[in-house]
Every structure is written in C-alpha cells, then in structure tokens.
Amino acid sequence: MTLRTHLLGALCGALCSLFFVAGCGSPVQLSVSNYQSDATFAVNSYLISGENDAILVDGQFTRGDAEKVVTMINASGKTLRSIFLTHAHPDHYLGLDVIAAAFPGVPIVATAEVVAEFKAKGPDALASAKTNFGAANIADKLATVTVLSDDKLILEGEELQVVKLSDGESPSAAALYGSRQKLLISGDLLYHRAYLWLAECKSDAWVSNLRSLSRLGPIEQVYPGHGAAPATASVIDENIEYLGTVVPILQSANSVSDAIAKVKQRYNYTGGGLLDYSTQIYFSACKKP
Ligand SMILES: [Zn+2]
C-alpha cells in the first residue's frame, strides 16, 4: 500500500465514522416515530431519525398538535435537519409555523407543485381555519415553504426518493420512498383504517397512483398520512378497495347523512371528521347528477 492510498483509506474511515456515509461500513438504520392528532382527523407527522439527525414529515393542523410535534422532536435528542411537506392540505401545513419557530433556520421544503398549490390556497385556508376552529387554536401565519431542488432527501447518507404524485387525494403531492429501508412515507396517498378524504373529485387518479406504487420496489413498512402507523403494504389494496366501494356509495346516497351512515356501516374507522367534512364537500363539488 502506498502512503497515498493509506492516507485516503484513513480519511475515508474518519469520514465514515463522522458522517455515516452510505457505502462505508454498516449503513445507517433509520427509525420512524410519529405524532397523531385526535380521532377527528387522526393526522400523522413523522420524525425520520438516523444516528444523530432527523427529518420531519408534515406539520399538523392546530397549534396544540404542532406544539406536541415540537415536544416529540426535542425528546428524540436528534438534530432536526429539514421538514418535508407532502402536500398542500391544511391539516398538514397550518401547524408548520409553530414548528418553524421552535427550530429556526431549519428549511421547510416541498416539490415545486406542492409549493405552488400551498402559496395559492394557503391564505384562504388559514383564514377559514381561524374562523371555523377558533383563532387561538390556529397559527397566526403560514410558514415559509421552499422548493426542494433535488428529487431526494439524504439523511446521514441514506437516500429517500421523492415520489411525485398528482391528481389523487390532493391536486399535487409527493411521498418519500427509502428503497434500502423498504419504507414508504406516503402522505395522504394512503390512509390506514381512517376514512379517506374524498373532496377533490379525483378518485380514479388516486387509484392509478396507488397501482403505480408497485413499480417503486419492495415496500415493507408504510407510514400513512392518516390513521394507525406503521402499516404493511397490504394497506395499498385496502385503499383501492375502499375507493371502489365508497365512491359508488356517495354517488347513490340521497343525502350527506345517508352517505355517512352507509360508509360507517361498512367501515368502522377513525377520522370521523374526515368523513363528515369530505362527504359534505363531495356532495357540493363532486357528485354527478
Ligand atoms: Zn390529510
């Protein structure tokens, strides 16, 4: 071994031990913990942790829930490196300003499509939430969310692929997929034993997105946007079955209350607020004559 290769080897070893670079020695095993709001919406925020650092996914709806996410992050002992917003629905972003205040300088990122939708709809969503859920319960302003310039997030050398989705549960969205870890942080592409939000009139595209997941690679653990976590990959077929069953129920029901009763008769899930609000919107926006 020449002195040069010896020095390079020593340098690589030092870098590996300091930064847990993928490909040097044992790969980092990521762990995922979550905070879930109460059964009204049962919305999840996830902390993906390596040895020292962490990434937060989604930021809750109310001020109180966002504060509990801050507690979860502090209790982890990890250094928060970034916050990823999966999609521009207010139950995932209105709490972000509270979290941002607790972790100044930590970037909040999303895909360009999600950022555009967030900027377009965020102000009205904030004002509406203040009116309907009590001004004191909702953050005073929207957080600053910037465009993620890459198609992946890296946590201590471990790659999480940003999987762009459109016209499903929301007009734009992205999931995170870790191929080596075989994990999917799905955002609201997937719900686990929680009522699906069917207010965007895009259930066919949603099913297409769900079917496309098989092309990603192996998935062992799924971290859904709403409901119990983690789930297994079987939750994908469960959501396809739910959409295929509930959309016809909503189409044929005579009233919002009739539709809600029939869905509850078929599925005993959490997230009653999701069902109540989204069925009302479905009847005014999506129901075909
Ligand atoms: Zn949601």
Descriptive notes:
With 289 residues, this protein is of the alpha/beta class. The chain has a single domain (28-286), classed as 4-Layer Sandwich (Metallo-beta-lactamase, Chain A). 41% of the residues lie in helices and 22% in strands. It has helices spanning 3-19, 63-76, 90-93, 96-102, 112-133, 203-212, 234-252, 256-266, 272-286, and strands at 31-36, 44-49, 53-57, 79-84, 108-110, 146-147, 152-155, 158-166, 172-178, 183-192, 221-227. The strands form two sheets. Strands 1-2-3-4-5-6 form a six-stranded mixed sheet. The chain has a five-stranded mixed sheet with strand order 7-8-9-10-11. The longest helix is centred in the middle third of the chain and has 22 residues, at 112-133. Residues 43, 89, 91-92, 188, 197, 225-226 line the site of zinc ion.
Which secondary structure elements does this structure contain, and how are they paired or packed?
Blueprint (H helix, E strand, L loop, with lengths): L2 H17 L11 E6 L7 E6 L3 E5 L5 H14 L2 E6 L5 H4 L2 H7 L5 E3 L1 H22 L12 E2 L4 E4 L2 E9 L5 E7 L4 E10 L10 H10 L8 E7 L6 H19 L3 H11 L5 H15 L3
Parallel strand pairs: 3-4, 4-5, 5-6, 10-11
Antiparallel strand pairs: 1-2, 2-3, 7-8, 8-9, 9-10
Helix pairs in contact: 2-4, 6-7, 7-8
The chain binds zinc ion (ZN).
The site of zinc ion has 8 residues, from helix 3 and strand 11.
- The first-level CATH class is given as Alpha Beta
Helix/strand/pairing category: alpha/beta
Bound molecule types: zinc ion
Number of helices: 9
Largest sheet: 6 strands, mixed
Strand count: 11
